[in-house]
């Protein structure tokens, strides 16, 4: 109870500081003001303002040549919808739930089938193990979750099935590798803790500067074992350009198709990220 007033004051100060920094900086954020806001949150014992409506926090990136996309505001829902969702059910959505589930499975498939994992293992000096595969996969799943959370209730519904598909895939892969039930249960528990800790760290990193994002990648992707700063620099650049590319994709197309074409790890033509390919789908959303 005694922490609530302090948390509210810290969040208010962080939000106001970030907005003032955005208005004063013009094209970018005032990093000193952002650091003061984050320090106030840490001193109060609360998390950084990850869910603040001030969209300008997302502009703290080195690639500012892509026009920022509009973020969906939280839509108004009726009392009945709020009631059934509070009971654990899902209210009516803009699109058919079955189509969204298929799109979620397809989006997760893009995270595991359209990624050159051997290149990540080589460039980042990661061992070729199931855990290393999971660390690379969860990074791309997180980027999809960040993008789809911008699409209102439909996007959040889709996020649930992206994560559900990921855990089913991880369990099946561990069975194929011959891991027994006891060790598989322990591994799944450890991966679950790693996943949600990584989400928090990556969220903070993408809303902060490159140093914070590099620290999150060092802790989660490299498992605190990266000694080459060039590898961190490569991954920070990869995440930044990937997020800007995904932000430029149409939200309705993502809800209906789930198609994501990832940029290569080593970009030969940086300007090519501006060319967004519009996915196609039929009347059934397939």
Task: Give a short synopsis of this structure.
This protein is an all-alpha fold and 286 residues long. Helices cover 62% and strands 0% of the residues.
Structural overview:
Residues 1-31 and 40-74 have low confidence and may be disordered. The protein starts with a helix and ends in a 29-residue tail after the last helix. Helix 4 (97-113) packs across helix 7 (152-176), helix 8 runs antiparallel to helix 9 and helix 9 (210-220) crosses helix 10 (229-247). It has 286 residues and is mainly alpha-helical. The radius of gyration is 20 Å and the shape is globular. The protein has eleven helices and no strands. It has helices spanning 3-25, 31-44, 79-86, 97-113, 117-123, 130-148, 152-176, 181-206, 210-220, 229-247, 251-257. Helices cover 62% and strands 0% of the residues.
Radius of gyration: 20 Å
What general outline do the C-alpha atoms trace?
Answer: globular
Q: In angstroms, what separates the terminal alpha carbons?
A: 50 Å
Structural class: mainly alpha
How would a textbook summarize the main sheet?
none
- Strand content bin: under 5%
What's the structural blueprint in terms of helices and strands?
Layout: H1 3-25, H2 31-44, H3 79-86, H4 97-113, H5 117-123, H6 130-148, H7 152-176, H8 181-206, H9 210-220, H10 229-247, H11 251-257
Helix pairs in contact: 1-2, 4-6, 4-7, 4-11, 6-7, 6-8, 8-9, 9-10
